[in-house]
Amino acid sequence: MSEYQYYEFRAIDRPLDAAAQAALRKISSRGEISAHGFVNSYQWGDFKGEPRRLMADWFDLFIHWTNWGTRSLMLRVPRRYLDPIAVKPYVVKGVVEAWTAGDNTIIAFDRSPEEDLDPFLEDEAGMAQSMIALRDSVLRGDLRLLYLGWLIAVLDGHVDDGRPEPPCPAGLGTLSGPLKALADFFMLDQDLVAAAAEGSTDDKPDQVEPSTAELSAFIETLPDRDKTVFLRRAVLEGDSHVRIDIVRRWAQAADGLTTVATPADRPQRRARDLLAGAQAQAQRRAQREAAMEAQRQEQARRALAKRLDALALRVEAAWQDVEAHIGTKQPEAYDKAVALLQDLGQLADRDGDRAAFDRHLKDLLNRHQGKTSFQNRLHKAGLKGKRA
């Protein structure tokens, strides 16, 4: 398999001007460049730019993946929404990192496991959209992605077994769509997430969205000076975060902004505890799946027995039905004929009458040996018989 790399940058808060687009064109002559992003892929060679520098200068989102397993994600958010100090407990060098660039905080997630990850990413553009939604949740105060990033480091052995876990956010057991996309992108073990969720409360980790009426009533209570500031930011500066700031103010006033932390009454877990918990989760999941499969097989067995009991009362009529289906020369009817023949074969095995079934089938094959499509279906179903 040839090498493949995919790079995508997105400008979310502020579109790229002509000068920025021209600078990007110097980096890549074939990349897709617009006011809102930069996309390039390589089947040979490599990206000539510096992703961290580009994020600092122009972009709010970066995704990189390769078909040999490397996965990278960077998000840039205004520092007032995410201080690097809040990220520090989750930092693992080379896996989860954070730094400031001007008035922004950039967080980076990287995974390059020793064994290859799934080499395919089904929906590249869709992944970017999910990560944009993930960034929006960070702006609203949801920091679950940081804990998931720390779990990636635990999974790949970058965290000492005895290291205590960082603050465990609420809502790990009910991940949002974008967070599930993040976990899928980095191929994060679902059992490890489930084990971590046992130490997480069920509280919503992000803000409760106010209704239009609630937000309108709250805006009426704001001082005129604050209203003017918000209006200036929205109209004159094109600030896309005005609504988020107003909602955060509303939540704080309503005591609806929940901070997330490890419950004080729960013993602090260590990385080895989570790995052991993941093994236990995997065992329980395997047991559940085995029980479900056994139930499915039992239901299928009962359904087959009931179907064969009914078929035993009309064997000759069933053979006539097979002939009628074949006579239509239609693919769907051929499928019905084959399915009915399979049931007749199982009925013969059950009732010890296989020899009679084989004679019927041999005669059938002889009569319809010119119908190639039907014959192929029989062979695929294991009903080969013997041709004269």
Describe the structure.
By secondary structure, this protein is an alpha+beta fold. It folds into three domains: about 5-205 and about 260-285, no CATH class; about 210-255, no CATH class; about 315-380, no CATH class. Helix content is about 50%, strand content about 10%. It contains 15 helices and seven strands. The chain has helices at about 20-25, 50-55, 85, 125-140, 145-155, 175-185, 190-195, 210-220, 225-235, 240-255, 270-310, 315-325, 330-350, 355-365, 370-380; strands at about 5-10, 30-35, 35-40, 60-65, 70-80, 95-100, 105-110. It has a seven-stranded antiparallel β-sheet, with helices on both faces. A hairpin with a 2-residue loop joins strand 6 and strand 7. Helix 7 (about 190-195) packs across helix 11 and helix 13 (about 330-350) runs antiparallel to helix 14. The protein starts with a strand and ends in an 8-residue tail after the last helix. Residues about 255-260 have low confidence and may be disordered.
